[in-house]
Design a protein that fits this description.
The protein has one domain: Flavodoxin domain (Rossmann fold, 3-Layer(aba) Sandwich). Helix content is about 40%, strand content about 15%. The protein contains 6 helices and 6 strands, in the order βαβααβαβαββα. Strands 1, 2, 3, 4, 5 and 6 form a 6-stranded parallel β-sheet that branches. The longest helix has 27 residues. The relative contact order is 0.17.
């Protein structure tokens, strides 16, 4: 693709011994096989965003990456029927950089596969003027869904990832074009 869409994949869990890198690596591989995307990864462990939302060099660099992006995917676990605090900090660290851009979610954890966390994050995304795409790959009992090399045979999740990436590409292209013609009024 001549002008690929910039997709930033945000790895949401920051817990020690987290499973997030396995799920994120699998998804990033799927995204990088798509010609319409130029895919980057923002791991919140490495981003070092301040919880009190003060401006730091890390926060400024993070917002610059968000501003340059056309679309986002958040890889999130579910903690106590909700999303990780680091994900909320990641959303709250920026404001205008999210607007009029699509977001998708990849979730994992417990019996629900992280879908309760995703439903809550859709509310946050709406408040930030983002477009949340419908398809969501999810992994209930995620550690049982991947082999030792990080490969999954979960055909429902593989299919959902493909459909989500197709929806993200459509929305990202449409919204990038619209922002170029008429800046978002939010």
């Amino acid at each position: 693709m001549e002008n690929p869409l910039r997709l930033e994949v945000i790895v949401g869990s920051t817990r020690p011994e987290r499973f997030a890198p396995v799920v994120a690596t699998w998804f990033v591989g799927a995204a990088r096989r798509r010609a319409e995307f130029d895919t980057g990864v923002i791991d919140l462990v490495e981003a070092r965003l301040p919880e009190n939302l003060v401006d730091t060099p890390e926060a400024v660099a993070y917002r610059a990456r968000l501003a340059a992006a056309d679309a986002f995917v958040v890889v999130t676990s579910e903690y106590n029927h909700g999303y990780p605090a680091a994900v909320k900090t990641a959303f709250d660290t920026a404001k205008h950089e999210w607007r009029a851009k699509p977001v998708g979610f990849v979730s994992y954890g417990g019996l629900s596969g992280g879908l309760r966390a995703v439903e809550q994050l859709r509310q946050v995304a709406a408040e930030l003027h983002m477009v949340s795409v419908r398809e969501t790959p999810s992994f209930p009992q995620a550690k049982k869904q991947f082999d030792k090399t990080g490969i999954t045979q979960n055909s429902a999740a593989i299919d959902a990832a493909d459909r989500m990436l197709t929806q993200l590409a459509w929305w990202a292209t449409t919204l990038r074009t619209a922002r170029g013609v008429d800046p978002y009024p939010g």
